[in-house]
Amino acid sequence: MSSVSKNKKRKNKKKYFQSNKKHKTGVLEAGLKGFLITCNNEHMCVKEAYNLLNEFADDLYGPEFEATEKSSDSKELDIEEELNKEIEAMKTKKRRFQQVCTMVKGILFINTTVPDPTKLATSIFDNVLQTGKRRGRFILKMIPIIVTCKATQNDIRKHLDEHMQELIKNDENKKLTYRIESRIRHNNNISTSHVLWYVRESVEKFAPEWIVSLTEPQLVFSIQILRSICCIGILKNYMEYRKYNLSEAASINDKESSQINSQGDCDEKQTSSDEEINEGNVQDSDYKLQIKGNKDEDIVQNNGQQGNNDEIQAPSNKNVTSETEKCNESCNKNS
Fold first, then answer.
1. Among 50, 105, 154, 246, which residue carries the largest CB count within 10 Å?
2. Which uninterrupted H or E stretch holds 102?
3. Where are the compositionally biased (Polar residues) regions (predicted)?
4. Sign, CA torsion 256/259/264/265
C-alpha cells in the first residue's frame, strides 16, 4: 500500500518548467543605421559592443541620459515615485544602441541614434592604433553602416546616388581613389557583379574623375546584403584600419614592438660578437708575445750553455799542450 500511495503522490505533483526569457529585439529592416559586427560568440559580443560603443559615444556626444535637475517639489516626493518617473522616461526614450536581429549566424547589427556612425568608428580605430590595446575579445570586424535599404536594384541605386551627391559637395572629394567590397549572404536574387555595376554607375554619373585603386583606396564602398536587406557603408582609412578588424589593428603595434626588440637583440649580438673577436685578438697577441719571449729566453739560455761548453773545452786543450811539451823535453834529454 505504501508503494501505491507514493506513486499516486508522484503523479499528482505538478511539473514546473522555467520559461526561456528572450530579450525583445527588433528585426533588421530598411531605414536604419548602425554597425555591422562579425563575431564568433554572439552573446558575449553584444556586451562588448555595447560597452565599447557607449564609452566612445559618451566622449563624443556626452552621456546618453542627462541628469534631471532637482526641484524643490522633489524633496516632498517619495523615492519610489522618483524611480518610477525615471523608468518611464527611459522607456519613452530610444536607447542610443540597440541590437537588431539579422537572422544570419555570426553577424550582429546594432542600430544607433548617433548622427554619424563612421565618425564614431574612426575614433575607436584611431584609439586602437595609438594605444595598441585590444578593445574587443569577441568582436572581429566592426563596419559602420550609413543606411539600410531593401536589396533591390532601384533602392540600392537610389541610396547610392543620394550619398554620392553629399560626398561631391566637399571640394576635397573631387578627385579620389575608391574600391568596392561586397558580400552577399542568403540571397540568390542579386550577385556581386550586379552590386559592382550599381556602384560604378553612380560613381561615373556624379564623379567621373574618380579612379579605381585596389591597393591604396581613399574610399571603400562596403555593400553587405543580408537576406532581403542591403547595408551600405562608405569607409575611410580602410587599409590602415586593417579592413576595420579590431584584433588586427591592435596587433600592428605588437608587430612593430617585436621587430624593434628583434633588431635590438641583433645589435646586442653583433656588439657581443665584436667584443669576443677583439678579446680573441688580444689573447692571440698576448700568446704570440709569450711565445716570442719564451723563444728569446731559450736563445739566451742556449748561448749561455755554449759559452759554458767553450769554457769547459778550453782547459782541456791547455792540458794537451802541456803534455806534448813535456814529451818533447824528455826526448831532447835522451838524445
1. 246
2. none
3. 300-322
4. positive
Residue 131: which residues within 8 A CB-CB, separation 6 or more? Answer: 253
Distance of CA 63 to the CA centre of its chain: 29
203-236: pLDDT as tens digits: 999 999 999 999 999 999 999 999 999 999 999 9
Orientation of helix 246-334 relative to helix 117-131, angle to 10°: 20
Is 33 within 8 Å of 118 (Cβ atoms)? no
Other C-beta atoms lying within 10 Å of the C-beta of residue 223 = 23
Regarding predicted confidence, which is higher, 159 or 64? 159
Alpha helices, DSSP H, located in 18-78: 42-61
Q: Which residue has the cell 555595376?
A: 197
Is residue 156 within 8 Å of residue 195, measured between CB atoms? Answer: yes
Give the predicted TM-score (pTM) of the model: 0.67
Answer for the pair 250, 135: CB distance below 8 angstroms, yes or no.
Answer: yes
CA distance 329 to 307: 34
C-alpha gyration radius of the chain: 47
Rounded CA gap, 108 and 38, in Å? 6
Nearest to 124 by CA among 95, 112, 229: 112
User: In whole angstroms, how far apart are CA 157 and each of 153, 210, 325?
Assistant: 6, 18, 143
Backbone angles phi, psi at 101, to 5 degrees: -75, 130
Structure-block grid coordinates of residue 257: 614592438
